[in-house]
Amino acid sequence: MILLRLTRVVMVVSAALTLASAAAMAAEADFDVRRFGAVEGGKALSTAAIQRAVDEAAAAGGGTVVLPPGRWLSGTVRLRSRVTLLLEAGCTLVGSTDLKDYPEQRPAVRSYTDNYVTQSLIAGEGLEGVAIRGPGCIDGSGAAFRRKEYLARPYVIRLVGCRGVLVEGVTLRDSPMWMQHYLACEHVTIRGITVSNHVSYNNDGLDIDGCTDVSISDCRIDSDDDALCLKSTLDRPCRAVRIANCLLSSHCNALKMGTESNGGFQDITISNCVILAPRLSQPMYGKARGISGIALEIVDGGRLDGVAVSNIVIRGVTVPLFMRLGNRARPFAKDGPRPPVGTFRNVRISHVIATEAASVGCALAGIPGHPLQDVTLSDVRLVFEGGGKREDAARDVPEKEADYPEALMFGALPAYGLFARHVRGLKLSGVELAAEKADARPAIVCDDVEGLRLDGLEAAAWPGAPALVRLKDARSALLTGCRPQAPEGLFLRIEGAATRRIVLLPNDLSAAGRAVETAADVPAGAVIRGP
Fold first, then answer.
1. Which of 24-28, 45-49, 438-442 has the lowest mean pLDDT?
2. How far apart are CA 484 and CA 466, in angstroms?
């Protein structure tokens, strides 16, 4: 009996020691940078101390490197697998203002960004299970690098070829270049971060580049250059990306795919976001009110396929929507072959409200022989400031196949609302277009568009406009359920010798002065009018 009791005591003590040991190990899993010699105050460089903490955490099989409240000055810190960088409330990790504190690091993964930057404040390549999180702040000291030259301005965060990345809760501000760049990574989650980037050139907010399985949610991003940008600067697509519940503001493009597009963009969803014109900053690039709300671009080859955008509110931005298939054809590798023209298909834009847009209009533009394909806009309301002139309506818009893609590249468009050229399979359903002041342009112009379905258009034509809708060289178009407001003008003008099979089914034309007008070059029988 005594022996049994002693055995039980030994077992209890052993269990207690095991629990104590586990607790001690758990406690040791946090690596406070002060234990490794980091000095608070933001004046003494703590790079080596922070790196030792990261390396010790990695050597222990993983852990959390803690930056407590205070200012911690550092150059490049290289993350390790299974290490979390935790910035506590009241903490600011401050980037050094001396470029020598950022060693050059050329990743094994080659991309066009080799031409931009080889340095960063927080770096990692080929890692697994890394995180940057907490309520603290990372300040890139970007004002000290206010110059246009590339390769002399670090990113704040750059992770390459990593798997299992979490960035959560942190505030990021004032980068010398792009704020954060995730290149060829998998399983990336970015949520609840706040970004302010307005102190230097190329001040993007967030760049996802050739990554797979990415979730971005509940972020606030305010930047001088593009706010939230998907890129493909190598031969890998951005694939399976989910963006939701973000508040975005930019002097350039708020939500963008491109400009670099070599690998393309596939299976992307964007929902429940608000896009506002910047209110508290002046632009280095772009426009005071921003250039585009949503810009989808394929110009360096690649395939854009399967993009769904829904429930977006846009206010005050110059151009709400811009879609472009071009042929800049820039190779991503030095001396690499020029890529062929890419493809742009299967895009759905729905439930978008854009107000206080400028007078430019929105372009959906492919190039001859290479149309945008299967594009749908449904339940979309776009309100522009108007003011377009009759000469704008008559403009011959240049193709600019090889030009840098931007929503302002064509100048004032021939339509105050939507200008579609070189598109196959365009569906406009429940679209509302309005101009706040007199505009002598049509609401919609379609040029070389095949398979158009215009269903339920509500728009107004101002006096002096040539028509509310203008079709040029359109084929297989169906217009139905439209309610034009053009009491002194024309609903539809049709032009072009290539025009074929324009079908008008029941439309409410009671508020249109005239219904249809055809130019002399339109073939006989090209227009079919229903009951």
1. 24-28
2. 14
List, for residues 68-83, the tens digit of each pLDDT value.
999 999 999 999 999 9
Instruction: Please name which of 375, 409, 205 lies closest in space to residue 291, comparing C-alpha atoms.
Output: 409
**Tokens 């706010």 appear where?**
227
> pLDDT tens digit string along 289-304?
999 999 999 999 999 9
Could you tell me if 59 and 28 are in contact, meaning their C-beta atoms sit under 8 angstroms apart?
A: no
Query: Which runs of E-coded beta strand occur in 17-125?
Result: 30-32, 63-67, 70-74, 77-78, 83-87, 91-95, 120-125
Candidates 75, 66, 85; CA nearest to 28 is 66
CB neighbours (10 Å) of residue 89?
11
Buried residues in 263-274 as b, exposed as e (16+ CB within 10 A): bbbbbbebbebb
Report the candidate in 359, 339, 241, 356 with the shortest Cα–Cα distance to residue 298: 339
Residue 314, pLDDT above cutoff 50: yes
CA-CA distance, 29 to 445, in Å (whole number)?
63
- The continuous run of DSSP H or E covering 386 comes out as none
Q: Which residue type occupies 197?
A: N
Hey, which residues does 91 pair with through a beta bridge?
A: 70
Q: What is the pLDDT of residue 530?
A: 77
Number of H helices, E strands in the chain: 3, 38
| Environment class of 194 (CB within 10 Å of its CB; exposed 0-12, middle 13-18, buried 19+) | middle
279: exposed, middle or buried (C-beta count within 10 Å: 0-12, 13-18, 19+)?
A: exposed
User: Is this model's pTM higher than 0.70 or not?
Assistant: yes
Reading the block at residue 135, the tokens are 């309520």
On whether the CB atoms of residues 326 and 287 are closer than 8 A, the answer is no
d(Cα 103, Cα 47) in Å, to the nearest integer?
12
Give dist(CA 232, CA 208) in Å, integer.
8
Residue 161: what pLDDT? 98
Q: Is residue 486 helix, strand or coil?
A: strand
**323: β partners:** 296, 364
CB within 8 Å of 493: residues ≥ 6 apart:
442, 466, 467, 469, 470, 471, 516, 517, 518, 519
For 249, which DSSP code?
Answer: E
Q: How many CB atoms lie within 10 A of CB 159?
A: 27
Residues contacting residue 74 through CB under 8 Å, at least 6 positions apart: 45, 46, 47, 50, 93, 94, 95, 96, 101, 121
How many CB atoms neighbour CB 470 within 10 A? 25
Beta bridge partners of 312: 273, 352
Beta carbons within 8 Å of 260's beta carbon, 6+ residues apart? 112, 209, 231, 232, 233, 300, 330, 332
Q: What count of Cα atoms within 13 Å lies in the side-chain half-sphere of residue 508?
A: 11
How big is the chain, counted in residues?
531
Count of C-beta atoms within a 10 Å radius of residue 379: 16
- What whole-number distance in Å separates Cα of residue 30 and Cα of residue 11? 29
